[in-house]
Automatic annotation (TrEMBL):
Belongs to the class IV-like SAM-binding methyltransferase superfamily. RNA methyltransferase TrmH family. Pfam families: SpoU_methylase. It comes from Caenibius tardaugens NBRC 16725. This is Putative RNA methyltransferase. GO terms for biological process: tRNA nucleoside ribose methylation. GO terms for molecular function: RNA binding; RNA methyltransferase activity.
């Protein structure tokens, strides 16, 4: 069996602003990446502006390593990808973030993704080190992603191959047993019959069937059935209206 590839390393080449390094760290950790490498950051490292911009992704900043060259930063990586939207005079396979993520998750070994300086992007010599280029399909009239945006696109595509939690979706309860659903339908029937809901008699079977179909569609779970039974019980009580005479 082929060994599972490691998580990709994010390499920021000559980043200019501490805030952008922090935002990139935040983007990484959102999608399960924590290994950041910096190549000669302009304002040195550590940078006090990075922490607040990371919004809690401190573990990425604390473990960030600094290197003097791109070659040193990726020396232990078997696969290197360079992100750029500009032609750099080098002939390389050009991949979308999705295609690169597929390779990262299937090819064994260490993978590194290079991101260039905010103002100018990667230089030709930086791109030459990589085996492939990652380019985002983008508006040709305005191909301007900021550093964190570029990182988040690549990190997100990689995360789609992992088992990350979806924080906005709660675990669904299983559907209620048929006996509970039948009890709910019977409860509706007992309350509706005295009020003439199933009249005329000639249409009673059809009306009951339609009611069952309607109540079956939502695939109620146990909690929902119990809640609806409680609603029906409350509606079915003979309660004295406020202010009325007994």
């Amino acid at each position: 069996m082929q060994a599972k590839a490691d998580k990709p390393v994010i390499v920021l080449v000559r980043p200019q602003l501490g805030e952008n390094i922090g935002k990139a760290a935040r983007a990484m950790l959102n999608f399960g990446l924590a290994e950041m490498r910096l190549v000669t950051p302009r304002d040195g490292w550590p940078n006090p502006a990075a922490g607040p911009a990371a919004s809690g992704a401190d573990i990425v900043l604390e473990k960030a390593q600094v290197f003097d060259s791109v070659a040193q930063a990726v020396a232990d990586c078997e696969h290197v990808y360079a992100t750029t939207v500009r032609k750099r005079g080098v002939t390389k396979p050009v991949l979308t973030p999705e295609q690169a993520a597929q390779g990262i998750t299937t090819l064994p070994g260490r993978h590194a993704i290079l991101f260039g300086p905010e103002r100018s992007g990667l230089e030709t010599d930086d791109v030459a080190i990589a085996e492939a280029i990652i380019t985002v399909p983008i508006n040709p009239e305005f191909g301007s992603l900021n550093l964190a945006q570029a990182v988040i696109l690549c990190a997100y595509e990689w995360s789609k191959h992992e088992t990350l939690a979806q924080p906005t979706v709660e675990a669904e309860l299983p559907p209620a047993p048929q006996a509970e659903l039948d009890g709910l339908i019977d409860h509706f029937t007992r309350l509706l019959e005295p009020r003439g809901y199933f009249l005329p008699e000639s249409r009673a079977a059809s009306t009951a069937r339609t009611l069952r179909n309607m109540l079956t569609k939502p695939r109620w779970n146990h909690l929902e059935v119990r809640t609806m039974r409680g609603v029906l019980s409350a509606l079915g009580r003979n309660r004295q209206e406020p202010g009325s005479q007994g």
